[in-house]
User: Fold this.
Amino acid sequence: MSLDACAALVAKGDPDRFAALMAAPVAARARLLPLYAFNLEVARAPWASAEPMIAEMRLQWWADVVEEIAAGVAPAHEVAAPLATLVREQGLPTGLLAEMVEARRADIYDDRPDDATFAAYIDQTAGHLMWLSALAFGTDPKAEGAIRNVAWAQGLATMLQAYPQLAARGRQPLPTDDLKTLVGTGLKKLKIGRSAAKGAAVLPAWQTKALLQLAQEHPEYVPQGRLKLSEIRKRGLLLWHAFRYA
Assistant:
């Protein structure tokens, strides 16, 4: 099945990640698009309905899709079919895909996570996605820790940007109101990870350092929905990261 549908989904639903994809080498795109589209569809599933049972059913559908892919079946679906091909050709661990689905069940409910639950959620969503992206290129397993550190920081930045929308829906996504400490943890992980994490898989973190530094300097920007960079700065950072890390 064509990757065009995956590209259209990501371009519309996750424009910053799509921008990173377009800055990556052309050959990398076919390996990243199915993963990015899968991540987007799974992330959307908990918000399909205000009724928890309906949202659970949407996530279960994706859990069943992952089971089919693990069994060697290529579902006839615009995202699942190319994902199944990628998994087969690159030998990707479907267990990580299953955990990505399972982690999103937390988005259905409004329980505030503790520190450990939050850390695990970020790792099983942003961390699994970036590590699977790296595995699609045959990345050395020794780099997993570094890549997951970068992904954790990137996932935190994304969560902080989404905070106003989540709060408006009655969610409490962060484990603490002490944003400076939480952001400090993200910046430390990013610094550690950046020393070893390279390749197209880490390009989605192109805004992470700037966003976290902004949140640390102005934590009030998070609930105000002002945690964002100018378009000029975003373009400059993307070009730099594509040159430096891809």
